[in-house]
Design brief:
Tet_transcr_reg_TetR-rel_C_sf; Tetracycline Repressor, domain 2; mainly alpha; Arc Repressor Mutant, subunit A
Length: 195
């Protein structure tokens, strides 16, 4: 391997280390605790080095948001592949959405602005989860009316995101109750797609 390739690999590794350190800090202290200085201290670099990779804390947040949407999309695609029936695909995808929010709480907060300002809305990464779910919904509805599909998507999203937000802001209702509410909502809203 030449020196150019080694330097490029080291830069990519440093960039990845910065993002990993940022996530670790956020898990411990929340988003309000994140700073360029803390990231630098965590990876044992000076703050000016961090600025060589990211122009600001907001640039780091933007990158993390895009990565979050990529992870969510991957989870949705995997959930979809587990089923051949469209209703089951849709239900599996929304359950995967819920599971993502529970396993990646801080990332979800950043992606959707729960208790903070969100980043990266309107990007290909942030649009991809919508595209995946809306495609299945459109097939169930046997309707290509984008406005109607969007309306039904946001009916689902409002219920599920609302339940997630309630649980992030307070103790919530417990895992079993939340999953039952979620299943009831998915079944109920899916029925409306067939009419």
């Amino acid at each position: 391997m030449g020196s150019k390739e080694r330097i490029l690999r080291q830069k990519e590794q440093t960039r990845a280390n910065i993002l990993k350190a940022a996530r670790q800090i956020v898990k411990q202290e929340g988003w309000q605790g994140l700073s360029m200085r803390k990231i630098a201290d965590k990876i044992e670099y000076t703050a000016p080095i961090i600025y060589e990779y990211f122009s600001s804390k907001e640039a780091i947040l933007q990158e993390l948001t895009c990565k979050g949407f990529q992870l969510l999309s991957k989870d949705l695609e995997e959930a979809k592949k587990k089923h051949t029936n469209l209703d089951d695909q849709l239900g599996g995808m929304w359950m995967a959405y819920w599971d993502f929010s529970q396993k990646n709480r801080e990332m979800y907060q950043l992606m959707y602005g729960v208790q903070m300002t969100c980043c990266a809305q309107g990007t290909p990464e942030s649009d991809h989860p919508y595209d995946l779910i809306a495609d299945v919904m459109s097939q169930i509805m046997k309707n290509d009316d984008e406005d109607l599909v969007m309306q039904k998507y946001f009916t689902f999203f409002s219920v599920i995101h609302g339940l997630i937000s309630i649980n992030m802001l307070s103790e919530g209702l417990g895992d079993d109750m939340n999953k039952q509410i979620l299943k009831d909502a998915i079944v109920g809203i899916t029925r409306t797609l067939h009419t």
